[in-house]
What we know:
Radius of gyration: 34 Å
CATH topology of the largest domain: Nucleotidyltransferase, domain 5
Low-confidence stretches: 1-5, 401-415, 439-443
Oligomer: single chain
Mean pLDDT: 81
Amino acid sequence: MPPMRNQNRQKLAQQEGPLLLAIRAIEKGEIKSICEAARIFNVPRCTLRGRVNGQTFRPDTRANNHILTVQEEESLVKWIFDLDYRGQAPQQCMVREMADILLAERVSKASSKRPAQVGKNWVTGFVRRQPKLQSRFSRKYNYQRAQNEDPEVIRAWFDKVHQTICRYGITDADIYNFDETGFAIGVTATSKVVTRSEYYGKRAVAEPGNREWVTAIECIGSGFALDPYIIFKGRVFIQGWFEYLPKGWRLDKSENGWTTNEIGLRWLSESFIPQTKSRRQGRWLLLILDGHSSHLTPRFHKLCAENDIIAICMPAHSSHILQPLDIGCFAPLKRSYGRIVDRWMRAGVDFVDKLEFLSNYPEARSDAFTFETIQNSFRAAGLLPYNPTEVLDKVNIRIRTPTPPSSRGSSVLQPQTPINPRQLLRQASSIKSGLKQRSNSPPSPIKSALEQVFKGCKIAMHNAAFLARQNEQLRAANQKQRIKRQV
């Protein structure tokens, strides 16, 4: 048997249609008596009388036991939106704290022995009844990246790319993107495994653990990838490395396995230029790169100019949304290589060195650098085809404090100016009562205007409470920094 509450709700929903028909018949004068209308449409007489006198449908009516008013909840939702828009979505404890602040501003201290507070689980119910809100787990996001996700900067960069393509007549086949990525050659990929149910938490899986660093310089074009440029850690070359090196690949060394200015220059002259010579569709090539120091040397750009290569650098800290390799290629590449290392570990190989890396890396590249993956990466970066909205639609964080919304005050009849929501509600009630008692009460547009003024004042006071709390937190943080500098 269904719960009684559900039965009542279904009964109310079934009565709503006949009630509306009865109300319409009374308003049009087709039926003179409420009792007669209730009998004809088979609806409760008391319910019909209440609806005719202005009562609303109960399921559409706000519950009486809500601790915050409608305006206070709207202000709280707006505050959450502001923080979320700036990449600082509040935790549930922060939402509860702000709700307590709004409640304390309205509720008189004299009417309560203890400070007014919302319940422990109030935030859960608040989020549930707000269709625009939802609780989610947060993820870490680099502040500098979020700070540089400026739509104006990104749009200006796309305009620069488009102008360059149009000015030099660069075809889609002559657009390239290159970048470096690193590998700890003995580390497996994190994956979901099937284990016994008695284990708790994440199951440990053995791995070779060799964390020697290897850098691979990769370059992709429209649906294809050029041969990579591998950088090993070492002082001298070893003959065995070249025996495992696939045809067309280049190998270099550095003291720490990272790229340098000289290596970047050698990659351009010995790898990129020879490989793209036979692929050119036009005179000019467009090379998209990030702001790494090895890409910004005068000799690098001089060599590009001598070979009709136009290098365009992306804005700082924006490669995660503008660079095709970072968007769709490097993550599958590292997952594929990690799975290969895990497979070797299960086969009994407990140490991975440079030779194993050279034998495993080609398989990982063939799995990751497919035609579809490369095409989708360029498409997600808004480059091929040219479509900046692919990126601009994803930019949803602003690390800037918005200007608080301004509100216009209203002249009131009372000599005292309200300074908190409680005083404003009291004064609004007195004004409404005075207007109602007067014989020549103002027309409905004036009443609506007053309601809007009162609502605006409430929102402004709620925003002031939020800003006061934020100012208090900033003062505390500033004081800590001042003490730290003095020490």
